[in-house]
């Protein structure tokens, strides 16, 4: 701990401003520290992406030019995400005749990999704005809410913002500060629930089970983990339709990505029914 404390003090001296407010056994970020979180995450993600770029370059040297399509869904891990990613990858690979890989990553890591050339495109749930990128809307999805098995709203299938307002909703700065997420869109539309920051898997479980907390997401029935938890739909009269976007780096969109764009735009309603069911 002493080495960590010294390193933090040295960093503050180098930056010329304190990053933390220290009080006894507690520590919190200063306004300057909060402002540095985003750039720090991007710097770390860029450093990691540099290593992945070197690995991919070595693979190209061994096997020639890469001909597959690499995509990242910008999202934290969710129930059955591997099943969803594999199903999407196999469907697109079959329909386009291009080997396609879809994986999950948080926004800063995905953007760093995009800039480094490690992936061809990011897929975001909600608009993404960055002068270095082009954001193409592929279609829209409905909003759902994830709740624990004992939640007072568990028997109501279609929920309004008025239903949700008395209960806390999960917020995560690393997720919700990257793009126009479902949570951001709903708050702008009038959702008044208290936002509670949760950062760990255990924290999420406790939030759902002990605090009657709610987690907003895409209305995807595959996310049900019955009897532990379930996904319910939020009334479209309250919750706005959320755009699903493909984000590419300006000047670097290749033919495979253009084919993917055309395919998803044409087949998005069908793909949405496959993954969300008839109510999606």
Please outline the helices and strands.
Layout: H1 2-15, E1 20-23, E2 26-29, H2 31-63, E3 69-74, H3 81-96, E4 100-105, H4 107-116, E5 121-125, E6 133-141, E7 143-148, E8 158-159, H5 161-164, E9 169-171, H6 173-176, H7 182-189, E10 195-197, H8 201-210, E11 214-218, E12 229-234, E13 242-249, H9 255-276
Parallel strand pairs: 3-4, 3-5, 8-12, 9-10
Antiparallel strand pairs: 1-2, 5-13, 6-13, 7-11, 7-12
Judging by the overall fold, what is the CATH architecture of the largest domain? 3-Layer(aba) Sandwich
Distance between the termini: 50 Å
Total beta strand runs: 13
Order of strands across the main sheet: 4-3-5-13-6
Low-confidence parts lasting 5 or more residues at pLDDT below 50?
none
The CATH class designation of the largest domain is Alpha Beta
Strand proportion: 15-25%
Figure out the total of helices: 9
CATH topology of the largest domain: D-Maltodextrin-Binding Protein, domain 2
State the secondary-structure class.
alpha/beta
Helix content: 40-55%
Overall radius of gyration? 21 Å
Q: What spatial form do the alpha-carbon principal axes imply?
A: globular
């Amino acid at each position: 701990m002493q080495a960590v404390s010294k390193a933090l003090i040295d960093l503050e001296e180098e930056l010329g401003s304190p990053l933390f407010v220290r009080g006894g056994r507690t520590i919190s970020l200063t306004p300057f520290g909060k402002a540095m979180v985003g750039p720090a995450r991007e710097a770390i993600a860029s450093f990691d992406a540099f290593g992945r770029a070197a690995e991919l370059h070595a693979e190209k040297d061994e096997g020639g030019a890469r001909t597959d399509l690499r995509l990242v869904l910008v999202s934290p891990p969710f129930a059955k995400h591997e099943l969803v990613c594999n199903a999407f990858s196999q469907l697109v690979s079959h329909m386009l005749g291009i080997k396609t890989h879809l994986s999950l990553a948080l926004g800063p890591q995905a953007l760093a990999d995009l800039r480094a050339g490690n992936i061809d495109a990011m897929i975001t749930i909600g608009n993404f704005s960055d002068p270095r990128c082009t954001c193409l809307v592929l279609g829209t999805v409905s909003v759902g809410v994830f709740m624990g098995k004992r939640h007072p709203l568990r028997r109501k299938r279609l929920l309004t913002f008025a239903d949700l307002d008395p209960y806390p909703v999960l917020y995560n700065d690393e997720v919700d500060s990257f793009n126009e997420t479902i949570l951001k869109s709903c708050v702008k539309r009038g959702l008044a629930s208290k936002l509670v920051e949760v950062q760990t898997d255990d924290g999420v479980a406790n939030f759902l089970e002990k605090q009657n907390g709610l987690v907003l997401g895409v209305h995807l029935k595959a996310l049900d983990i019955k009897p532990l938890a379930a996904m319910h739909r939020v009334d479209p009269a309250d919750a706005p339709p959320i755009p699903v976007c493909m984000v590419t780096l300006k000047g670097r969109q290749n033919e495979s990505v253009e084919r993917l764009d055309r395919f998803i735009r044409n087949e998005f309603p069908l793909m949405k029914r496959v993954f969300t069911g008839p109510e999606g």
